[in-house]
Amino acid sequence: MTSRLKGLVLAGLTSSTALFATNASAVEIEYWQYFFDARVEAMEILIENFEAANPDITVTMTHFPYADYRTKVAAAIPAGEGPDVVQLFYGWLNDYVQADLIQPLPADTFAAADIDENFFPMVQAMKDGDNYWALPTAVRSLALFYNTRLMEEAGIENPPETLDEMMAAAAAMTKTDSAGNLTQVGITAGMTAQDHHWWREGLIRQFGGEPYTDDYQTVNYNTDAGMQALEFYTNMFMGDNPVTAIGFMDEPQAAFKAGRAGMHIDGSFRIGSLNGTRGLEWGVTELPATSDGTRSNYSSYWVNAITTKAEGERYDASVKFMEYITSDEAMQIWLDTVGELPAKPSVGMTEANANDETFGPFIRGLEYANTTKFANESGQRQVLVEMVERIQLEGMDPAESLAVAADAEQAILDEYYSE
């Protein structure tokens, strides 16, 4: 063997050995989120970027259907399995803390004063004293999606700006067959989707009420304003001329995506799944105001947290990953891919984003949005689902059903805060 060839072989062995050593010492962490196609795509981009900048860290993503997600997380972490960094709905934070599933973010990296200054104020619900438990990449608000083709067919020139205009547009876009069955709805409906947020933080406030008092510990919607909001909502599908039906095409978003619904109230996260839908022509506008111009909206967010499973090198790697997925760069990628709004004004309120034809209505909605502080998000949502079902399926008087709902939700809050 020549000296030159021997040198190349030795160099190759040295290079291979170094590469092997690097791979062998790489830290692997696991990230979990629920399955939503645009969210998965966005996280794949973020993971690729993060690994390129941190070749000594590998991030493996696992996702589950939304219905199974919380159960999977609750079972895995106590067993020392599952995610090191986990995504959770902000309304679940108390449950995750009490179950010892997550740990506070390190104050030296995530200083509370810096977060308070640089993020939208709503994220402060994640703070306990001088520590944050979790942080979002993006936040959400609601807006009114509309089918431009169906509006043109119905002779509607502009998207509705008021609730009255919205109902008139819905009536114009509603179609029935010869037997009177709905074949196309003017607007979707369903408390299991986003309507429970719209009714609670939108309609009740627009009719002059306040859904909760005492920092969301006391139910306050069994009032005239709550009754007006409930009548407005149920009249959409139980009035003399219904413009929708709960359960039409199973899910509200499915009806809109299929081009069978003229309008649909949803979160900014829906943008990603609507983009590219063949045959669907749509636009988006702010939630309609009352006739006197009163607006209200709901804002929420999913956060990322470090689990109690993460220790040692995995903990350090998880902190680095959290830093990246809450960075300005990550927020812009999430906005472009998913459609959810950046959690920092430095990204969300840029001229390009704030005036964007699609994102703008959601960003403007943040200015008059309220964030519900849930004790039990799924339980409190179910109370409103059952409130409507009693009226629709059992024929209960709306005022009575409203009172039953208020008592049931107050019981949930009392049980939680008594502990």
| Rg over alpha carbons | 24 Å
Based on CA inertia axes, which overall geometry fits? globular
Instruction: Give helix % range.
Output: 40-55%
Q: Could you name the CATH topology of the largest domain?
A: D-Maltodextrin-Binding Protein, domain 2
Low-confidence stretches: 1-24
Structural class call reads alpha+beta
- The total beta strand count reads 18
Q: Tell me what portion of residues adopts beta-strand conformation.
A: 15-25%
Mean pLDDT: 91
Mind summarizing the main beta sheet?
A: 6 strands, mixed
Corresponding CATH superfamily of the largest domain: Periplasmic binding protein-like II
Give the N-terminus to C-terminus distance in angstroms.
78 Å
CATH architecture of the largest domain: 3-Layer(aba) Sandwich
CATH top level label of the largest domain:
Alpha Beta
Number of domains: 2
- Annotation field: number of helices: 18
Question: What's the multimeric state?
Answer: single chain
Offer a concise description of the structure.
The protein is α+β, with helices and mostly antiparallel strands and 419 residues long.
Word description of this protein:
The protein folds into two domains: 27-139 and 300-370, D-Maltodextrin-Binding Protein, domain 2; 142-298 and 374-418, D-Maltodextrin-Binding Protein, domain 2, CATH 3.40.190. Helix content is 47%, strand content 17%. It contains 18 helices and 18 strands. It has helices at 3-25, 37-53, 66-76, 93-98, 112-118, 148-153, 163-173, 191-206, 224-238, 252-257, 271-274, 312-325, 328-337, 345-348, 351-354, 360-365, 377-394, 398-418; strands spanning 27-34, 57-64, 85-89, 102-103, 127-128, 131-132, 135-136, 138-147, 175-176, 182-184, 212-213, 218-219, 263-267, 282-285, 297-300, 302-307, 341-342, 369-370. The strands form five sheets. Strands 1, 2, 3, 4, 7 and 16 form a six-stranded mixed β-sheet that branches. Strands 8, 13, 14, 15, 17 and 18 form a six-stranded mixed β-sheet that branches. α2 (37-53) packs antiparallel against α13 (328-337). The protein is globular. The relative contact order is 0.16. Mean pLDDT is 91; it is low at 1-24.
